[in-house]
Structures are given as C-alpha cells and as structure tokens.
Amino acid sequence: MNLLDPTHLQPDNSPDDADWWRGAVIYQIYPRSYQDSNGDGVGDLAGIIHRLPHIASLGVDAIWISPFFRSPMLDFGYDVSDYRDVDPLFGTLGDFDALVARAHELGLKVLIDLVLSHSSDQHPWFKDSRSGANAEKADWYVWADAKPDGSPPNNWLSIFGGPAWEWDGERMQYYLHNFLREQPDLNLHNPEVQDALLDVTRFWLDHGVDGFRLDTINFYFHDRELRDNPALEPDARNDKIAPAVNPYNWQEHLYDKNQPENLAFLQRFRALLDEYGATTAVGEVGDAQRGMEIQAQYTAGGDKVHMCYSFEFLSNTPLSGTHVADVLHQYEQGIGDGWACWAFSNHDVIRHPSRWHLTEEGLRLAAGLLLSLRGSVCLYQGEELGLTEAYVAFEDLQDPYGIRFWPKFRGRDGCRTPMPWNRDNQNGGFSEGKPWLPMAMEHVNRAVSVQDDTPDSTLRFYRRMIAFRARHPAFAKGGLAVVSADADTLMLIRTHEGDRILCAFNFSAEEEAVLDLPDGDWRKSEEAPFAARIEDRTVTLPPHQAFFGIERGR
Known about the structure:
By secondary structure, the chain is of the alpha/beta class. The chain is built from 14 helices and 21 strands. The two termini are 23 Å apart.
C-alpha cells in the first residue's frame, strides 16, 4: 500500500451518509500559516488547495478552515467585516469554490469557521448601528446607557482583558464586546439579526460547504436585564477559558453568556442545515464552570448542533488514567444522547506536546488515546508532525492577547507559526517571502518532506493510527466502557454491533505496566503502531506504550 496515495484511506463520505460526522476525524487548518502561494508571507486558499493531498493522505474525513472572510485582521479573521466574501489576503470566492471542489474530489468534507456572536466594528451593520438610536440597525448590537456616574452598565469582563463595555461617543452609549473592543457583540435577541445570520449560513451552504465550526457558540445571547456576574471564590477559579493572569476567571459568568434563549436559535440553525442533507455543526463552548452541562443542552434531542467542541483536554492538566477516566465518566453521565468532539490542540492553546511536556513516545501515546475516544476528533495542523509550541519574541508578536498580558501569558502566536513542508528552505517551504510569524527552526527538522522519507516518523505513525481507527467502526460509532484506571494506566473497551476492541495505555515515562485482561479471547492487533506484549491473561505495556486487542474470531 502506498501511504502517500491521497485517496487510499478515504472513508465513505458520500452524500447518502448523513451520519458521516459521527466519529469523524477533522483536520483544522489555520489558513494564515498553512501555505503561502504568492510570496506575501501569509497563507492563502490557493496554498491550501496545493496541500490538500497531504491532508487526504492522513486518512481524515474532513477539514475545518479557520476564518478567511473580509476582516481588518485585528483578531486575524475572527473580526468579520463582510460575511459573504473572502478577504483578498486569502484569495477570492472563486478560490474558495475551487478548494471545496478539490477537497470533495479527494473525499474530504469541508467545514468553515462561522463567527456569529460578534462582528468587526468595520462591518456596515455596526457602522449603521452606532449612528444613532433611530438607525435602521440600531438594535442589531448590544447597547446600554452608562450608570449615573458614567461607568459601564455592569461588571462584565472581556476575555481579552478589561471591561466588556466600550463607550461610543457617536451614539453616547456603551456597547458590549466579549473580546476585543473592535469586536462588538451582535444582539441575537433581535429576530432580524438571527435572520441575517441564517442568511449568511445559507450563503456558504450554497457554496458547497458540508458544515460549520461555530465560534463561541454559548456567547450568542446575553441577559436582557444586564445583571452583574457574581464573584467566584479563589479556589473555584480555573484557566480553562482565559489565562490565569486574566481576572475574567474571577467571575461566575451567569449573565454575559449561556442564556436559555440560545436553544431556540440553535433549533432554527439546525433546521436550516437539515435542508441541505449531510451537513454538520460543531459548537465551541467556552465556559469553565458549566461547559459539560451546556454541551449536553446544545447537542441533545437531535434538533440543535450535532456536536460540541470540548475544552476538558485543552487545559494544562496532563494526561493520566484517572483524569481521562473522570472526564469520560462525566461525559457519559452528563451529555446524554449528545455527542462530543475531542481535541488536544488548536489555534488558541499551547500545543499539547509542550503543554504536557511530552516526549516523542508520549505524544504518540496521546494520539493513540485521542483516536480511541468515543466522539469525533479534531487534529490541529502540524499535530501530525509532533510540532511543539514555538517561541516567538515580543518584537515578533502579532496576537493582541499576548501583547496585553506579556510576559506571563505569551498569547497564541506560538501555536500559529507556519507549517513546515521541507527542510531545504529557510522558511520551511511555507513562503518565498518573510512569513507573518517566524518559522520555528526546530520545526523545520520535522517538516513533511523529512517525515515522509522516515519509516518510523510521527507523520507515518498518525497515518497508521488514523487508518486503524477508520478500519474499525467501533472507534467512530461504538460505545465505550472504562475497564480500569489509575494514575499511570487506563483500559477501555470500544464496542459496536458485537465487535469489541480493547485499548490499554501506560502514561508513565518510567514504569512498565502489567495489566490483567478482561474476559474475552484477545489477540494483539498488528495494525496499531505500539509495542505492547500479550501473554496468557496479561498485557505488558512498556513506558508510554499502548495495547490494542481484538477478540479472536472477529
């Protein structure tokens, strides 16, 4: 079998498979940093098209492309000024249509990032809204009068630091922004705003997308009464959503997000997607206290979003048997008939090999675990190469988040540096010009061209592990049971239509683990790329190794 053949591992993603998203492996592309095609130092859609065969060779089911809409780029595309066009930095709408067509030729579904909670302050909607209380779109954003002393309407805070309210001297009111002050929040309590956003959704569905990643899905609605958030006790604070240096973590966010009105809007959104058949939506739920409860609400019943993006494994808590088992137990108890989408890295967090201080064997074990969980999976570009977090000097920082909280929080640029394609180029084959962020020199030695030519590389490991997952429906569609767990080890069984797969992991970097096998006539799967040993009724796991067992006769 030719591992470099971009079509050899593609699953059945035909239009008739409406359930393709359940258990899918989704590859996230951060377009600014994937491939530059014109030498301006910024990745673009044409560059993505050029690299789609690499993605297809991994055997994944879909791609998720972070925003490429017209934008002032203060938050690098998450501040949208035109929802219906491609920013010239990335190309044209024609380029996007060509990307969708080529992806579909390769058996890849296409998801795009949809930012519905807020826009850029340069969007025509906001320009009209700020012009006065009698403007056509006066109520399309969240406006409020100052308190009698001139201070903001309440104590809500921005994730990017400081108050979540900005005074506007033109309208003589405050407007709400949960992120940058240049990202005013849309008022989804207004049915006209909902209609406009659903029209945007239909526009991209008509351009052939297969679904959406919904940015900050639990921020769509705010409390109409603008009540203050209560304080959190210090021991209840955590840094799942914002860095520890940000006092955003000091509040219990009862009123600035997570409002019940969102459920009805998500039902409208799902009804629109259902008109187009085999489409999907994965929501990003950003909440440190009730994230799992919210995910259950948003994915239950089959009439809202299909799945929600989980933060449980995007935190600093390292992998251990007990931690993973606790998370899985909470999900089984809390999410009901909903569906999870798991990730260890993305464009907003420190890459997990650095965050968890993983060795080469450790990062491969983490991949084996991720691809064994019940739910869909998101892989972040470069994860298949084992990329670590890059150091970006202060003078090279682009991220306003990092600039504000430097040096205790360095921002998100370290996980957004350019993708390395070959070693024989000072920019790793990413661009012929100066990259928008520096190419990490340690990444160049892990370039795709290097790992393609190395039989035991991390890239080839990912291809084998994804292929193993794809060949066994129990991984994508089956149930999960935790057999045993302690600090160093975890044993799971995945089941589907009578088939059972045993998955055992040793998280220790030092101790060999010997585990008793559960009932069943187990044999070691030779497809899984791990070095465990089985003898009689026990399995021996060297440090940072896994065992995948299949029942004989199946």
